[in-house]
């Protein structure tokens, strides 16, 4: 394993009575082992099909790489239409691995199309996208596991009509990839009929656990990233996550520490990467942690209203924004730092002899500065008895990102098992989707519309 996990600052030894006693590992050994066994026995089955994603065949990947390489040659822009799990993984991973200003680079330098991950239906955003892409050289991955999501279907309808008008029907079809559940859903049926290139999302791979299937892999392969290396990294973490010894299994360990922290009222979990490349990893984490663990009922049908509110922060930027709250506000947060040992670039702070007042900075690098600031924040939090732990990536590359993604998936699965909830459903999201169908007049949702109309709003409460 390339990632390193330091959980000192979660423990009583470092943060006193606000921390966790090492004795709980023995005291709660049974619950830990039950949660571990539950996840392990479920691997590859039901909604845990994501656990098998690192092991797809080379043949399958080779076909994908070859198709996507051809797209890379032709495309000046590559657009992902999707939302939630269908967008956040592609965005987080691509942002981690491509140039931070990829789209602004000339094509000879970026060697791949510009990337746009469009996960909203704000009309201004759609218009803005259409203002900057050229349909003749733009290629699209329309991603929706269910094939039913209103946002993604709308994006597809708008785009396909425009493409046909601009390029003619036959050529338009060649610009669209559809990633969805094979044999199921509205988009699959349309894609089959129209003859689009289709990639499948496994029946037991939920949106927020789907980044390592074509939902993410297509985008990464189009960008020329090494998807085999990424899956190798994910496989390493899958192996480590199968270790029954909690002290050698970081996903089980931190899931347990988070679970114990929730019992102490730590209801907020902050992910704070100290790297712009990992900024959107925090968005990915917010979804997988929030949507998986925020549940009203447990597996015994008991009302529990559990979950830990995920929050995102960026180091060092948010040191000058949220860290005041983390250090002195309520004792309700666990902060996870993502550290990077070796940034891909080194920038020296110019040693300008004429500006004497800045002597302490001269000759150092921004690399030293950002890492010093991370350690300083970690120290300040520890001093204020604030729970935190650090995950260090030696470098941000396909392999370490693969490890990190798999770690988040297993950590979430173990946490859900400890909490005795259904980690993989999202009834709260589904309710909103159905209400949207009703409001737009979709057949079969008439009763839902009546229910919505019944939710009266009093004018006296509107000013
Ligand atoms: O994690 C999930 O299951 C959700 O966030 C979905 O990804 C999101 O609602 C989009 O669904 P779909 O991929 O079916 O369009």
Which tags fit this structure?
single chain, 463 residues, alpha/beta, Rossmann fold, 3 domains, five-stranded parallel sheet, 12 strands, 47% helix, binds 5-phosphoarabinonic acid
Structure description:
With 463 residues, the protein is an alpha/beta fold. The protein folds into 3 domains: 4-42 and 246-419, Glucose-6-phosphate isomerase like protein, domain 1 (Rossmann fold, 3-Layer(aba) Sandwich), CATH 3.40.50; 46-230, Rossmann fold; 427-461, no CATH class. It contains 19 helices and 12 strands. The strands form 3 sheets. A 5-stranded mixed sheet has the order 1-12-11-7-10, with helices on both faces. Strands 3-2-4-5-6 form a 5-stranded parallel sheet, with helices on both faces. 43% of the residues are buried. The mean pLDDT is 96. Bound molecules: 5-phosphoarabinonic acid (PA5). The site of 5-phosphoarabinonic acid has 15 residues, from helix 5.
Q: Which CATH-level-2 architecture of the largest domain?
A: 3-Layer(aba) Sandwich
Distance linking N and C termini: 57 Å
Please identify the structural class as seen in this structure: alpha/beta
The shape, in one word, is globular
Q: How many helices does DSSP assign?
A: 19
As laid out across the biggest beta sheet, the strand order is: 1-12-11-7-10
The fold-level CATH name of the largest domain is: Rossmann fold
Strand tally: 12
